[in-house]
Design brief:
With 240 residues, the chain is of the alpha+beta class. It is built from six helices and seven strands, in the order ααβαββαββααββ. The strands form two sheets. It has a five-stranded mixed beta sheet, covered by helices on one side. A two-stranded antiparallel ribbon has the order 1-3.
């Protein structure tokens, strides 16, 4: 197990490494968002004017404008995902009980899972040592992984979260019994901008990996088509 001071030193080095990237990303986002906002505003005005007309030509034009607006919304979502990816290095680490964070997340995600016919099954080990965690980023990590799991179970299923101690690491396994991934997808899933979804940004899993690595941890995945997927995240335990 590693001391809090040692983990803090690693965190400091990672922050320095990511600071310039985050600054560049923020500037890029600002330059894109200004014209994008203008485009969206003008699209809304044009759609509002055409919405009251009944001519076939205007209806066709309205349909095209709605497609453009949808693509602008997709661009804004991708931009948000990119900013999240670039800013992962700005952590606010605190000593935390991983089980508590997992229980809080389960409470948050349970209504959405119930709507999709998904049962959440926690198996949390007792007396785990604490870990150094940025609670907000950890919540985002869990949200990204749970979103993927739910999308892999369109007809419902079981979503398991297991914690346990392995050597000097506290481990969280996130398991679904959904569609699973091919070997090719598994080999590329952490690549920036790689996605198997038509509307995916390709930044969800790369962001997850970056969050884990920024915490000094590791992430691995096992998946099989038709049987489901298991992500295992190991974080350094704090000496107590």
């Amino acid at each position: 197990m590693r001391s809090e001071s040692s983990l803090a030193e690693d965190h400091q080095r990672l922050q320095s490494h990511y600071a310039e990237i985050a600054s560049l990303a923020g500037g890029l986002a600002h330059e894109i968002r200004n014209p994008l906002s203008t485009i969206n505003l003008n699209l809304d005005l044009m759609i509002e004017e055409l919405d009251d007309t009944d001519s076939p030509a205007n209806r066709r034009l309205l349909q095209k404008l709605n497609v453009v607006r949808q693509q602008c919304q997709n661009l804004d979502r991708i931009l948000n995902d990119f900013l999240q990816f670039a800013r992962v290095g700005s952590l606010k680490l605190r000593s935390a009980d991983l089980n508590t964070l997992v229980r809080q997340f389960i409470e948050f995600i349970s209504p959405q899972a119930a709507e999709k016919g998904i049962d959440i099954s926690p198996h949390l080990a007792v007396n785990l040592p604490p870990v150094m965690v940025d609670a907000q980023l950890w919540r985002q990590l869990l949200l990204n992984l749970s979103r993927n799991a739910m999308q892999a179970m369109p007809s419902g299923g079981v979503f398991e979260l297991q914690t346990y101690l392995k050597g000097k690491s506290v481990v969280l396994d996130i398991i679904d019994n959904g569609q699973g991934m091919s070997r090719d997808t598994q080999s590329r899933m952490f690549e920036t901008f790689f996605s198997t979804k038509p509307d995916g940004s390709g930044l969800g899993l790369p962001t997850v990996r970056k969050i884990v690595e920024a915490h000094g941890g590791t992430i691995s995945c096992e998946s099989e088509i038709g049987r489901g997927t298991r992500f295992s995240i190991a974080l350094p335990a704090i000496e107590t």
